[in-house]
Amino acid sequence: MKLMFRNFPIYRIEWVTSIFLIGTALGALTLVPWFLWTHVGETDLGWGFVAALFVFYYYATGFSITLGYHRLFSHLSFKAKWPVKLFTLLFGAASFENSALDWSADHRIHHKHVDEDEDPYDISKGFFYAHIGWLLFRLKPKPPVTNVKDLEADGLVMWQHRYVQWIGLVVGFVVPTLLGWAYGHFVTGTPGETALACFLIPGLLRTVVVQQGTFCINSLCHMFGRQPYSTRHSARDSWWVALLTFGEGYHNYHHEFQHDYRNGVKAWQFDPTKWIIWSLAKLGLASDLRTVPDTRILAAEVKERSKSLADDTRELVARLDARTRELRARTIASLEGIAADLSQRAEALRELAATKAEVGRETLDEVRALFQEAARHLESLRRDGAPSAA
Ligand SMILES: [Zn+2]
Ligand SMILES: [Zn+2]
Questions:
Q1: Helix (H) or strand (E) holding 314
Q2: What angle, rounded to 10 degrees, do the helices at 155-169 and 82-93 form?
Q3: 197 CA → ligand 1 middle, Å
Q4: Cα–Cα dist 2/42, whole Å
Q5: How remote is the CA of residue 390 from the centroid of ligand 2, in Å?
Q6: What average pLDDT is seen over the chain?
Q7: Which site from 35, 223, 228, 315 is most exposed, i.e. has the minimal number of CB atoms within 10 Å?
Q8: Model pTM?
Q9: What is the DSSP letter of 11?
Q10: Residue 371 CB coordination number (10 Å)
């Protein structure tokens, strides 16, 4: 019999995951403050060591998800030598987000069916569902895993898949606790307390912080920010989400060009995962970094800009009274002209990209000048349409 509570399908609850996620979060919110309250200023248990271990674990497990699980295993956006694979599999397990195989299977479905019912973390079911709800209860039985044949042929990936919970426990909790014990034993003379501090801070607190950070990719990255490359899906580019997610905040670009090893494609965008992959390639630990040609990226950007410009113009004009509309007829006409021009240029760029030709500096400058001119015109219309301050 399928257990229900009123309308709530109790039989759909993922008990082990739910207890783990809620338990670790409650533990981090209560035990960590209690420990700090009772020990900071009281005991010199090697706080610098505990903090350094926390920082190391935070970055090691965080990057194992973004660089390893996401860009390497799910998207094959570059090739990596075995030490990189091993590191990201060990510390990926310690982030307690399932095995690389399962994670990639879900993630590939997410890209294929984004915003649809099959999307495992479909944002149209709301923030909570996309962030964590999908892990706490399954609305539908898990579909059979068929989209990771390439990963199933990888011995290291399969080894991690088989023992992922044990690896996570050892790397994520046992190792930091033992390191804390050793430091306390040999340096500060507080083995028990330093061990507990390392269990709680680089272990428990770090697990929760990294999980919430990576969950944001599925929730916030589909809610906040701009859509410069495509409006066909909910994914968005946001610099502040990039800060929380090791550079994954440029999610609109990522959904449009998922095999590019960069998420923040512009040189100035905060994408430390991209910088590390690039550095690993320089060190000979990574190769075959996949990128989308600049012309294709520009074509997508120009097309979106022409669409949004036409929409914005229409919306602003509707807000103007008849007399202002007449007075600003020239501005409105040039905005419409720029939108049409950009739309044609996008088409030309797409054709150019198909021949693998590079876009010239001149074209780039012209496009940039059009963007700026349009922004100026829109701004002045916006001022006209704004209700005067009373
Ligand atoms: Zn992805
Ligand atoms: Zn996404």
A1: helix 294-319
A2: 40
A3: 35
A4: 53
A5: 44
A6: 93
A7: 315
A8: 0.90
A9: G
A10: 16
CA 65 to CA 138: how far, in whole Å?
Answer: 22
Q: For the chain, how many residues are written? A: 390
User: What digits encode the pLDDT tens for the residues 276-330?
Assistant: 999 999 999 999 999 999 989 999 999 999 999 989 899 888 888 888 888 888 8
Amino acid at site 181: W
- What is d(CA 225, CA 251) in angstroms, rounded to the nearest whole number? 9
User: Tokens for 101?
Assistant: 């195989």
Residues 6 or more apart whose Cβ sits within 8 Å of residue 256? 229, 230, 235, 300
**Which numbered ligand comes closest to the C-alpha of 263?**
1
Mean pLDDT of 79-107: 97
Residue 153 CA, ligand 1 centroid: distance in Å:
21
Residue-wise pLDDT tens digits, 212-228: 999 999 999 999 999 99
For 51, the token pair is 């903090």
Q: How many CA atoms lie within 13 A of 331 on its CB side?
A: 22
Q: Helix H segments across 227-293?
A: 239-244, 251-256, 272-282
Q: Report which residue type is found at 127.
A: F
Token readout for 222 is 């589909």
Judged by its nearest atom, the ligand closest to the C-alpha of residue 77 is 1
Per residue in 231-276, pLDDT (tens digit) is: 999 999 999 999 999 999 999 999 999 999 999 999 999 999 999 9
How many whole angstroms separate alpha carbon 172 and alpha carbon 121? 25
CA distance linking residue 148 with residue 140, whole number of Å? 20
How far is ligand 1, taken at its centre, from the CA of residue 129, in Å? 18
Q: Which residues pair with residue 4 across a beta bridge?
A: 9
